[in-house]
Every structure is written in C-alpha cells, then in structure tokens.
Amino acid sequence: MVDVLSGRPLLTRDGLAVDPEEVLQNKIVGLYFSAGWCSPCRDFTPVLCDFYSELLEGARPPAPFEVVFISSDRSPEEMAEHMHDMHGDWLALPFHDPYKHDLKKKYNITAIPKLVIVKPTGEVITDKGRKQIRERGLSCFQNWLEGADVFQNFSN
Predict the structure, then answer these.
(1) CA-to-CA distance for 32 and 54, rounded, in angstroms?
(2) How far is CA 115 from CA 16, 36, 69, in A?
(3) E-only strand ranges, the chain
(4) Which of 68, 77, 90, 109 lies in the 20 to 30 Å Cα band around 16?
(5) Left, alpha or beta for 122 (phi > 0: left; psi -120 to 50: alpha)?
(6) pLDDT tens per residue across span 30-85
(7) Given the DSSP bridges, would you call strands 17-18 and 10-11 parallel, antiparallel or unpaired?
(8) What is the largest CA-CA distance in the chain?
C-alpha cells in the first residue's frame, strides 16, 4: 500500500469511499495534481485516461497501476463535475481532506497538472509522469515497474 495515503479514505469516480490499503496494495500510483479550471489539465487528462484504460483494460493481467487525483478545484462540486466529465475510473483524495496540502508540499507541486509516479512506499519513481506519458506512451510503464520493484509479468 502507498504509505503516504495510509488511513486516508479515497473516493471512486462515483463518490464511494474506499480503503487505500485494499485498492492500492502492490501498485504503482500516479498522484495526479490537477483541476477542472486549468486548461493544460483539461488538455492532459484525456491522454491520462487513455493511458490508464490501455494499461488496465488492454493488458492481461491488468497492470498494477492506479491514479489518485489530488484536486486544486475551487469547490467540491467543481471537483465532482471535473471527475465525472473528464476522469478515468480512478480514485481521488476527498476535496476537504487537508492532507492534499501536505502532499503538494511533500512532492514539491508548484504548478499543475503534475503527475508524480510513486512506489508502494510513496517514494518517487518520477515526478515527470506527464512528460513521459506524452513522449513514450505505454512503454514508460515498464520503466516505472522496474523502478518500483513491483513484480508483474507485464508486457505491452
């Protein structure tokens, strides 16, 4: 499980609370710092959706990968609308959870969108997830796997 999210309930796209201990176990996690009002975010989010779908739906077994959205939206309603309209079937830290500020500080988030790829321990594999997905597509995931020491018989 990603230690940095341990004990913090996460939300599904449909607003259901899930236990991070269960849903993130043995997975590489993309911490996606984004907002609906942000034009570059709206540009990258569909690219991330496609990447996520291909990794999880296009691979057998599904890749050990999950995205957790950390919102910079202005309201919980704006966050929910953004998630419903644009996001893949990934998870989110609740809007009112003050821990999002700690995460922004921990991972040195000074601008959005930012996709930080972390090991199950929370240790950074790369803070250039967005750039790597744009430049290399699915092939970057194999590098993340190797960097994370997560065993998976995965080929793309």
Answers:
(1) 17
(2) 23, 15, 9
(3) 10-11, 17-18, 28-34, 65-71, 91-92, 114-118, 124-126
(4) 109
(5) left
(6) 999 999 999 999 999 999 999 999 888 877 777 899 999 999 999 999 998 888 88
(7) antiparallel
(8) 41
Question: With contact defined as beta carbons under 8 Å apart, do 63 and 26 qualify?
Answer: no
> What does the block give as tokens for 56?
């999880």
Return the residue matching tokens 């990794």: 55
pLDDT per residue as tens digits for the range 120-152:
888 999 999 999 999 999 999 988 988 777 544
* Secondary structure of residue 136 in the 3-state scheme: helix
H/E segment holding residue 10: strand 10-11
Which two three-digit tokens encode residue 33?
A: 């710092």
pLDDT of residue 150: 53
